[in-house]
Design a protein that fits this description.
The chain is an alpha/beta fold. It has 12 helices and 15 strands. A 7-stranded mixed beta sheet has the order 4-10-9-8-7-5-6, sandwiched between helices. A hairpin with a 5-residue loop joins β14 and β15 (412-415).
Amino acid sequence: MSTDLMPNRYRPGESDLPKRESELIARREAVLGASYRLQYRRPVHFVRGEGMWLYDPDGRAYLDFYNNVPCLGHCHPEVNAAMAEQAGRISANTRYLEPKLVDYAERLIETFPNELDRVVFTCTGSESNDLALRIARFASGNEGVIVSSYAYHGTSAATAAVSPNLGDAVKLSPSVRMVSLPGPAGVPEAQAADFFEAQIRSAILDLNRRGIGVAALLIDSIFSSDGVWVDPPGLIASGAAAVREAGGLVIADEVQPGFGRTGAHMWGFERHGIVPDLVTLGKPMGNGFPIGAVVGRKAPMEQFGATSRYSNTFAGNTVGIATADAVLTILQRDQIPQKALAISQHLRSGLEKIANQHSGVRATRNAGLFFGVDMGPEGAPAARRRAMALDVVNAMRDDGVLISTTGANEDTLKVRPPLVCQAEHVDLFLASLERALIKVAG
């Protein structure tokens, strides 16, 4: 496992930078907290975005194959217009009657299974997961939370305490149990569900023996931080059932796989044939505007709401709701998920062709337009695989294409372009990846 919390980052002295960027970095370091990082060995400096593209101050265009936040592309004119129109009238909160809030809530709920019929709005995915944990702990009467071994679920105190991805310096809660995934463990797909269920039952047994009990299984159904281990569909179903048998709730973190990212489904959990108790939303919901939500079953929502107040001034504000409503309208009207699925097949085919020609590509996995591409030949040491992945990412950055890495060893390329990606963008990405592989190998 990599001990560097952000290996794909700028380190002073490692790159020669133009005066403009070096002076800006110096100003940042003089005023911003030390927890900030700049991505890539040579930081990128952007002044505007449009669709699939980001532009630096000199007008150079960079193809964005990494940013899932603007799911409809950067600065979508229709989304921006809805945001500006509402901001020009009023930005109010959920304590006042406002029909658009209810209209959007009804539309959003219609995209979920019938059992999930209540929504509470937040500002971010971290807030959504924080609130979902509160609800699960209240409804279950237990404290224990089960997560995957390299999960990331947010930056609040509560969500950082259930996010092993943040590193050893961020201490996990004593009530957290981590479970291994079948893919990284080398378990064949035919045995994946049984392996996952066994991991879950072992965690439940330990939590119960220690008098903690299980409140929730909290999972990102695409396991993005673990290395994008998406298959086989259904692998989590029996483990989720075991959690419910033990009195816990199932929370699906849909911040990354949600809103049509997987193509075949609106929500990532649908690939696994389950209906969670709570679903958390964030980032893509407002195409970059900070809005999130918890969608859930009526019973736990009412249990929590009867005695606990969740009052968040900006959560569900009218500007955010208008923005989110425009995003949902465009996703549905323009059949964005279905088109993304077709484009993902073109991307998959191209990646498989490259893998057949370059030994540096070890494996490719995807669900819709979310890909994990393992770097480094079979049997190569972990450090070599990680170094190769980082070299490829930074070679592509210099070529004008943006991606990053993921996984416990950070040797998996994380490829997740905006859902408006077209065939010509895929071809540009594939050509850049091939150039990077040749450069790194040479």
